[in-house]
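## retry 2 of 3
previous attempt timed out at serialization; input unchanged, resubmitting
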Amino acid sequence: ASTEPSLGEMSSGLKEALTKGAGFAVQTLNKDGGYFNDPLVKIPFPQEAQFAANALRDIGLGSVVDNFEKKLNEGAEKGAALALPIFKNAIREMSFADVKNILLGGENAATNYFRDKTLTQLSSAFSPYVKQSLDEVNATQLWTDLTTRYNRIPLVRKKVETDIVKYATGKALDGLFLKLADEEKKIRE
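## retry succeeded, writing output
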């Protein structure tokens, strides 16, 4: 009898490992401070508008900047809860070719598979939570007003992203895929 696992067994084993890894990545981020307290995934004040954060800190309003950053991350933490069902669906839909590509692919083959298959759905899932969190402190409207005015300055060469929800959602997903890649590395080891 052959001791080598069948293709079906390898596929099943890989899917189970990916489900556990994805679950752990999501669980790590979907808690209070999951993003905010982790320097690798924390969503920072947008770099292109750091001048505004510095100006607010200079006049004693650093707490406004800190609260803004906290709200960026809280929305991502809430949105993370919706990622696991999306990942599980992508795992369920894996073909044998997908399994083979992941098994024989590079060190981030599974993470890349998830990014390709789930990015649009994850963005749609995260966005409302990020927006709700920012709306609680009127940050969405303030950000839009601030950046729109800044972008209208005639000599400004580099425009600032006016859609803070888009920015924060993108950063949240970058962090999620970073955690997923960490879990994939552990699985491969």
